[in-house]
Design a protein that fits this description.
2 copies of one chain form a homodimer. Chain A is α/β, with parallel strands linked by helices and 252 residues long. In chain A, 45% of the residues lie in helices and 14% in strands. The structure holds adenosine-5'-triphosphate (ATP) (2 copies) and magnesium ion (2 copies). One magnesium ion binds at residues 14-15, 37, 41 of chain A.
């Protein structure tokens, strides 16, 4: 089962969510995490330092390296297809190829190796460009993290328009796993307002229980650890555990 | 004087900073704000709702509308070149043109009208793509907001590499106004750690006093107001006032 974590709004906890979910899924199953963002935050957030000659997601998408050569292990039983600054090059190279096949590069590269992994989690860059569309063409499910703030809520409207087009033209199997409110401060009226608007404007989408705002998350990023390895506080892990439970129940 | 607000890391307060600065600059001078992000957050954050036929930054960059036709006024004495989802189309259209002139589209479009404005503030998308490079080719100064967190700090290293290349190949006049730490929680060790690392790793850049984290900022975004119109709390406005003071002192 392949899941993309995407939202073109920046800083909504896409990467933090991808790390948390891959870490939890890897407790009971085989899991591959894929970093499609040129910032390489999923890679550093899982505690991986790239060696100079290490092939990355860019090489795999451009066909310069087979997937098994680029995959690296982490300390958390999660395999990783790392990403770095070279992904900026991948997007430009793909854009120059005018043919529609450029949207299926990731899918083609993954296909022969999927049997090895029960779960694949893909972290997307903050933009609905070719790399994210490659992810949308590849996955079964899409999780949309949304910060409990005005700009992030507004971005969700654009996102749902794009998903409709993707389902019609690119990947009819793509379904939305749900919207995950993040960095929620339930004691502020702003968060309460936004949660209310989310539930009313997007009543056709599943809205997960929010992830509380806590400094433990940035700390865990800095430490290169999934959240449940960094803290015992169940209230911080539980929202991600809820997502995993839904994923495991859906398993075809 | 033209200033770009950029950082490929998402959610670091680029847009919130652009709104705050444009709002303050407009108190004593003529100011144009430009929204180069397909999310259109600068546009909604200044309280502007686009009318259906309204030309945007996309039309101006592709030469489909002259700048004066696309400019709209706001309630804050700031003129705005609005942005919306069509900017995704602009980036793809520019990428298809292989010639280097595609990096100077914004500069060409602005040139005849610059005399009207003492200050121009450009909000960039969370990516170092063609739209942001167009901004870099156009501006005198670059302000880099950085959230006081690990991922944002890591992103700054890539950013400075890009700036070197831009200064050599695209715009030798481009200078860095400084780094603006945002959403700072000075009572947490994480923020203190990050501030220490910023000052030691980037000792050649000017590091402004940090903007405190406060729910007043997301509230002001939702209200479509610059921060100093939304709150009287000087501790929230002062860091932006410091940036404006540096800008006005630099005025050629
Ligand atoms: N629940 C949370 N509470 C507090 N901080 C959080 C939480 N989740 C994530 N963060 C922090 O917020 C920042 C943004 O999160 P993250 O980088 O994961 O977002 P993103 O959507 O992947 O950003 P980008 O758009 O740049 O890819 C990070 O510094 C992260 O540590
Ligand atoms: N000082 C602050 N304190 C608290 N929240 C803030 C502060 N500055 C900005 N924010 C909030 O953080 C979120 C991210 O800010 P903003 O959207 O301005 O960042 P951005 O860098 O423009 O994001 P993107 O990468 O998507 O363009 C917004 O919801 C904003 O309201
Ligand atoms: Mg990310
Ligand atoms: Mg923005």
């Amino acid at each position: 089962m392949i899941i993309a974590i995407a939202n073109q709004k920046g800083g909504v906890a896409k990467t933090t969510s991808a790390i948390a979910l891959a870490g939890l899924l890897a407790e009971e199953a085989t899991c591959l995490a894929i970093d499609l963002d040129a910032q390489g935050n999923l890679t550093t957030g899982l505690g991986v330092e790239l060696k100079p000659e290490q092939p990355t997601a860019c090489d795999v998408m451009l066909g310069d390296a087979p997937l098994p050569k680029a995959i690296t292990s982490t300390n958390w039983n999660v395999d990783l297809l790392p990403g770095d600054f070279s992904l900026t090059r991948a997007e430009e190279a793909l854009l120059k190829q005018a043919n529609p096949e450029r949207l299926y590069r990731l899918k083609q590269a993954l296909k022969p190796h999927l049997k090895q992994y029960e779960y694949v989690v893909i972290d997307c860059p903050p933009r609905l460009g070719l790399l994210t569309l490659n992810a949308f063409a590849t996955v079964d499910w899409l999780l949309i993290p949304v910060q409990c703030q005005f700009f992030a809520l507004k971005g969700l409207q654009n996102m749902t328009k794009t998903i409709d087009t993707v389902q019609q033209r690119l990947n009819p199997q793509l379904r939305v796993l749900g919207v995950l409110p993040t960095m929620a401060e339930m004691n502020t009226t702003l968060t309460q307002d936004i949660m209310k608007q989310l539930r009313s404007q997007f009543d056709d989408l599943h809205i997960f229980d929010p992830v509380p705002k806590s400094v433990r998350f940035p700390e865990s990023n800095m430490a290169g650890k999934p959240i449940h390895h960094h803290t015992r506080e169940w209230r911080l892990v539980q929202p991600y555990h809820n997502v995993v439970r839904k994923i495991t129940l859906l398993e075809p």
